[in-house]
Amino acid sequence: MTRLAPIALALDAPNLETATKWARSTGPYISTMKIGLETYLRDGDRAIHEVRDASGGRDIFLDLKLHDIPNTVAGAARSIAHLQPSYLTVHASGGSAMINAAVQALPETKVTAVTILTSLDEAELAAIGVKGPALDAACRLAQLAVSAGARAIVCSPQEVAAIRACVPAEITLITPGVRPAGAALGDQARVATPEQALADGADLLVIGRPITAAVDQEKAAQDISNGLVS
Ligand code: C5P
User: Fold this and answer.
1) Which residues are near ligand 1 (CB < 6 Å)?
2) Rg (CA), the chain
């Protein structure tokens, strides 16, 4: 079997049938399937089971971005434990105790911290009380999350080299905003090619529309993967 590319396909689909179809056609080439709030809130556990089966048992990245008091996050994490996701996202800004509550509840899962949402610009960050450059805050939050037991961090391709330098090598860095050279940007403003993101220290690339909006999703996944694994 060919090596699987370190890609998490963002299954942002209008219905589960479409998400499952994408998982089936891309599963032979990529390592991970990312299921977010839109799909999980609509289709529940069934989405995880059907995507996992269709993809040939690929890793599941459950992108729920939990953020609440530690007791509630622990309960939320326990209530998805039976799904055995490889990754579960939480907001690093929920603090150490909250992150650690998720880690304790899900010892087999890489609790994955989201640092600063890339949708926030400096003015909005200042308005919610985050002073100074966004990159400083992202590094601070990444270190806090790792100290609390997070084993993966989501960051933009522009931040990945700096975050790589401030967290231990075994921490998995995950970057969205990845576009093959020449691909449409969509609403992503700050992008990098897959090769560049990996060279800068990313371990797993979140890619959605460059694959899911292609006429032939299987070919798009195969083409992008071929450039990454040989
Ligand atoms: O289609 P595209 O490749 O832009 O999909 C990227 C995925 O990564 C989407 O599921 C999006 O919600 C997610 N994401 C992002 N930027 C972040 C965090 C997550 O684009 N900062």
Assistant:
1) 10, 12, 36, 117-118, 154, 176-177, 186, 188, 206-209
2) 17
